[in-house]
Amino acid sequence: MARHTPQHWQELVQQQKLSSLSAAAFCREHNLSTKSFYHHRAKAAQTKPTAFSEVIVKQNISTSSPIKSQTITLATSVGDLVFPAKIYPQIIIDVIKGLQS
Fold first, then answer.
1. Which of these, 26, 31, 80, 83, is most buried using a 10 Å CB contact count?
2. Mean pLDDT for the chain overall
3. 3-state SS class at 94
4. In angstroms, rounded to a whole number, what is the distance separating the alpha carbons of residues 30 and 13?
């Protein structure tokens, strides 16, 4: 039987959990030693899961279309009011107060 890395054993244990096979049947199907499987399954159960996960950030910038300016749209009973995103907040507050009166 081939030697497996600890990570591969974790994957095998997870695969067995997700399968409908018993541990013995899974080991027979994957040509694994049941003794080794039970050892690594017990070891995996003792390992506390980490709260961190590796994240790979891929930056995807499209240069085919121009960047649209960001806006703030205020939907009112009168109609939609569109403001530039960099507007002073007080102006929007004043507009809302004016609509309420």
1. 26
2. 81
3. helix
4. 12
